[in-house]
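[Automated response] Your request has been received and processed.

Submitted sequence:
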Amino acid sequence: MRTPDEPTIDTLARTDTGYRARSLCLVDNQPADITVTVDSEGGFGATVRVFDQMSLSWHLVLRADHTDYPRLPTDHDLPATLEQVRARIRELHTTTVWILRTARGLGPRW
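Generated structure:
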């Protein structure tokens, strides 16, 4: 199975307090796991973890929430909600690509 270059979200999974969306994709040619969890008030928490092929472990690259980005809709059944979540995940993906490319361009610190 090939990991897609861009994040894709087809459905939103209901949770006890809201819903969750998750996508596996590539970030700067590295496997990445992007997760967004939305609560019943539209607040959310998002993480982007990238798989390090040398240590064979996942590393947190980005953590964001509703204080960093606007809140998301609370009704996970609406098609517009899915589109807004997709847009947010694309924003998180773009930010993470920038972070990794900037870090690689700066090189090691010591």
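Summary generated for your ticket: The longest strand covers residues 18-27. The two ends are 37 Å apart (CA to CA).
If you did not submit this request, please reply to this message.
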